[in-house]
């Protein structure tokens, strides 16, 4: 998989990597048994620090999503597709409907983003994770 | 993993950067300057030895071709021992640091596995030793030439050991001038950090010091001997200081030896005999101040000490300045 | 691979203690103290004239300190901002130079770097473009296999593509060799993901230093309606106000759970740029006061 770092995001680079792996798992691009790219490959292709990649992989390992096999690399241990695809699809459809409404009401993408964040922020202290 | 490919490539490891490495760098960096001066020295030495050989073979210093005689070639060549110290200072030492500073390459050199002091020591030794060899070589070749010319002109030897060209060509003097020139160029190089400026200053200061020490000071390293003779003796070959002495001053004096102005009364007398009589009548004597030939070695040691002290101070200044640099 | 990077865990690669350096009466560096852990890629950030180059030069051993001390564990390589090369040396000569003047020399690594950036070995360095000369300087530093690599504004005078490639290659070398890197820059936007450690310098003094994620993680940016105080407890690093809106960069109190803010306030993690600019701005105000 290809990682990319959004340098304008305040999210720490290692968390961006973690999130990208989680997204890939969630969307089914990565599945159990798949090998994550080597640290050297990620470094060479996305221009991030090896320590950052290692930190991300360690984080994923701690959350039980991947496992490091001595000398072989880092492999996906578990998938992240716990939510029923039908439920996901329904949620997505309703969100799309909502976004359409918001656009019709004249909201820009940034406004929508701010609105979503503020709602997410009500529910939990840590909005970024 | 790509990392494994480099593991097979040999990585060289050593304890320290050696003299051979410094020699490589010195040569690579200064080869044209070294070659040019060496070639010039080679030409001078070849000419000097060639002329000396011809003079010895023919037994005379007069002939060559046209206006050029062997002795006149010798007079031109004796300039070489007097200028080689200057050339070393200007062309070898003055650019040594300043060129690095100007091109900022000192940052490269001194951030490898050697200190600035070690780099500088290497350069000074590896250029300084050849500089001394070249200087002494030129001096010895010219001494050979001067001896040959003197040998075929015994009645009036043109090169007196105590006097300017011969004095300067001796190995001791050559070592003194070369060391001083090198140290001066190096110190100015470190201080100015500008190549052209340090070369110009080296030229000026070297000449000034040489004129002051060798031209003005040397005659009075020791009190010269004084000889007062009656005016008539001037015309006789037996009079005056010995032929191998170095006359540093001479003129008219009274019988007591105190200097006196030229007697105006005799100025207008045309006839030589009347003129001489006039001079004698006015009690005109002739005095000479001179150093006898046996003062040669003490003088050379004295002058060597002066330049050696100057050179040591300048080397110390250059090394300290580099080590305690206030800016990069 | 990971072992190479983590080999230096706990060890200190570069240490400065009360470091001070002055040019005549003006202090370019003052009371600078930090310990850079081995194996890190540290960014030395500050405005122009903040003392970055001076600190680098002292660490590289090119300048003596006037106060305190600086030390680096192992061999240090330094690439200065102007990336000088010997103009009359060919690129191959520069490699010979590297091999001759270093006690450790990795010819293959240096050549690989040059090949990667298509630098001809037989060309005189003086005939190369500025960007190519920079690659020669990098190759020399990489080939000497330093334990600590000091890079002063490494990406200056490189084009955008080369900046990205050099960064990636450099990080690749770090990953393979486990060396510690300290790179100075004033372009903070390019550092995210590249550096994992930050040394922030202003007016010759160290404003902040530490693990980048920890530093940033300890701060939150709040945006909300015009207010004089932020919506949660913490030290305000920077406050900006418009007629209707206020933005606060807040350092969260240590050892307490992250505060929950509600209502009209939006919180987001600060970017490195937010953080650095806020810190620099704060010192500037402090100096004016």
Brief rundown of the structure:
The complex is a heterotrimer of chains A (129), B (328) and C (289). By secondary structure, chain A is mainly alpha-helical.
Biggest interface, CB < 8 A? A-C, 36 and 45 residues
- The secondary-structure class of chain B comes to mainly alpha
Contiguous runs where pLDDT drops below 50 for at least 5 residues of chain B? 1-8
Question: Widest sheet of chain A: strand order?
Answer: 1-2
Strand arrangement within the widest β-sheet of chain B reads: 4-6-5
Please provide the count of β strands of chain A. Answer: 2
Specify the helix fraction band of chain A.
Answer: 40-55%
**What is the first-to-last residue Cα distance of chain B?**
41 Å
Helical segment count of chain A: 5
Return Rg of chain A in Å. Answer: 17 Å
Reported for the largest beta sheet of chain A, the result is:
2 strands, antiparallel
* Biggest pleated sheet of chain B: 3 strands, antiparallel
Search tags:
heterotrimer; A: 129 residues; mainly alpha; Arc Repressor Mutant, subunit A; 6% strand; disordered C terminus; B: 328 residues; 2 domains; 3-stranded antiparallel beta sheet; two-stranded antiparallel sheet; 11 helices; 8% strand; disordered N terminus
């Amino acid at each position: 998989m290809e990682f990319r770092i959004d340098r304008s995001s305040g999210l720490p680079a290692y968390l961006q990597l973690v999130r990208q792996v989680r997204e890939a798992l969630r969307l089914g691009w990565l599945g159990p048994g798949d090998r994550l790219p080597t640290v050297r490959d990620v470094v060479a292709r996305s221009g991030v620090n090896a320590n950052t990649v290692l930190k991300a992989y360690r984080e994923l390992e701690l959350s039980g999503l991947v496992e490091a096999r001595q000398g072989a690399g880092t492999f996906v241990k578990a998938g992240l597709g716990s939510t029923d695809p039908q439920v996901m699809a329904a949620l997505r459809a309703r969100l799309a409907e909502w976004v359409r409404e918001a656009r019709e009401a004249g909201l820009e993408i940034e406004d929508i983003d701010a609105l979503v964040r503020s709602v997410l922020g009500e529910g939990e202290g840590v909005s970024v994770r | 993993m790509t990392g494994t490919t480099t593991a097979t490539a040999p990585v060289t490891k050593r304890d320290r950067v050696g003299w051979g490495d410094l020699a490589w760098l010195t040569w690579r960096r200064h080869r044209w300057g070294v070659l040019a001066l060496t070639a010039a020295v080679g030409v001078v030495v070849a000419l000097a030895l060639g002329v000396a050989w011809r003079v010895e073979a023919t037994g005379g210093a007069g002939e060559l071709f046209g206006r050029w005689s062997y002795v006149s070639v010798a007079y031109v060549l004796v300039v070489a021992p007097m200028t080689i110290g200057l050339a070393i200072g200007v062309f070898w030492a003055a650019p040594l640091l300043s060129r690095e500073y100007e091109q900022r390459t000192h940052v490269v050199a001194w951030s490898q596995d050697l200190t600035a002091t070690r780099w500088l020591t290497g350069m000074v030794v590896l250029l300084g030793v050849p500089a001394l060899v070249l200087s002494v070589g030129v001096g010895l070749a010219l001494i050979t030439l001067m001896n040959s010319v003197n040998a075929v002109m015994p009645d009036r030897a043109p090169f007196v050991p105590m006097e300017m060209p011969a004095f300067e060509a001796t190995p001791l003097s050559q070592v003194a001038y070369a060391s001083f020139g090198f140290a001066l160029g190096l110190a100015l190089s470190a201080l100015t950090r500008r190549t052209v400026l340090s070369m110009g200053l080296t030229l000026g200061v070297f000449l000034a010091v040489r004129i002051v020490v060798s031209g003005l000071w040397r005659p009075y390293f020791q009190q010269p001997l004084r000889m007062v003779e009656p005016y008539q003796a001037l015309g006789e070959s037996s009079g005056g200081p010995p032929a191998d002495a170095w006359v540093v001053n001479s003129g008219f004096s009274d019988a007591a030896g105190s200097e006196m102005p030229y007697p105006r009364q005799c100025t207008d007398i045309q006839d030589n005999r009347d003129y001489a009589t006039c001079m004698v009548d006015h009690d005109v004597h002739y005095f000479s101040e001179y150093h006898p030939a046996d003062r040669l070695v003490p003088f050379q040691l004295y002058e060597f000490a002066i330049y050696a002290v100057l050179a040591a101070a300048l080397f110390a200044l250059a090394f300290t300045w580099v080590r305690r640099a206030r800016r990069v | 691979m990971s072992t190479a990077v983590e080999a230096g865990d706990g060890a200190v690669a570069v240490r400065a203690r009360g470091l001070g350096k002055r040019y005549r009466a003006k202090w370019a560096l003052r009371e600078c103290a930090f310990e850079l852990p081995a194996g890190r890629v540290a960014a030395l950030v500050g405005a122009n004239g903040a003392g970055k180059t001076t600190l680098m030069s002292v660490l590289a051993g090119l300048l003596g300190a006037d106060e305190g001390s600086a030390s680096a564990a192992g061999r240090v390589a330094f690439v200065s901002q102007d990336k000088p090369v010997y103009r009359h040396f060919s690129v191959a000569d520069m490699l010979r130079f590297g091999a001759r003047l270093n006690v450790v020399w990795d010819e293959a690594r240096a050549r690989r770097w040059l090949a990667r950036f298509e630098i001809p070995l037989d060309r005189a360095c003086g005939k190369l473009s500025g960007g190519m000369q920079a690659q020669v300087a990098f190759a020399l530093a990489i080939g000497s296999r330093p334990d600590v690599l000091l890079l002063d504004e490494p990406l200056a005078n490189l084009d955008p593509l080369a900046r990205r490639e050099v960064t990636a290659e450099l990080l690749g070398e770090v990953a393979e060799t486990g060396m510690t890197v300290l790179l100075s820059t004033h372009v903070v936007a390019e550092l995210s993901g590249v550096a994992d450690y930050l040394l922030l310098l202003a007016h010759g003094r160290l404003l902040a230093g530490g693990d980048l994620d920890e530093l940033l993680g300890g701060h939150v940016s709040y945006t909300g309606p015009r207010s004089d105080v932020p919506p949660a407890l913490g030290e305000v690093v920077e406050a900006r106000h418009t007629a209707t809106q206020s933005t606060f960069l807040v350092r969260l109190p240590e050892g307490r759970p992250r505060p929950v803010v509600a209502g009209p306030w939006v919180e987001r993690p600060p970017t490195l740029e937010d953080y650095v600019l806020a810190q620099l701005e704060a010192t500037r105000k402090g100096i004016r006061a």
